[in-house]
Amino acid sequence: xxxxxxxxxxxxxxxxxxxxxxxxxxxxxxxxxxxxxxxxxxxxxxxxxxxxxxxxxxxxxxxxxxxxxxxxxxxxxxxxxxxxxxxxxxxxxxxxxxxxxxxxxxxxxxxxxxxxxxxxxxxxxxxxxxxxxxxxxxxxxxxxxxxxxxxxxxxxxxxxxxxxxxxxxxxxxxxxxxxxxxxxxxxxxxxxxxxxxxxxxxxxxxx
Length: 207
Description:
alpha+beta
């Protein structure tokens, strides 16, 4: 509880200054409402525009926060362009953490790579509930063939904050890897992203 309070105290002036662009008189109230609902600045930015608008009663606030979120992810993604991608890269992990770690539901994300491990596509393959998301190998591999990918990095998040893979995570990954192998597509890694860290199936000897 103390660490959460400290985090809120630290991000409050940043968020309030941002919202002051819209209305200096209303920005303190908007800030209070957003932090009461989402707790931290990272959670505020990861929330849906609909949830942000409900919390503040302002669509303009939601539109501004969406623009900030898009700029944040764009800045994190730029270093990944036109260079080989490896799952151990801190640059890649920073991007994925920013994109997924604070989502309130599980999302399955796939990085489609060419023969040089350069990024072809960076897409959400499925969304799920707060505790699970379903991996469909046929859908993922069909998309890989469509874009000419020869390798994939699969990523999903754990909203609980704990990146430890479940038995279902392991089983689904092995099914995908087996299906991909039959098409000469390599699964470079499966990363699980959470607030408390990122786990690599490859580094953990699970793939």
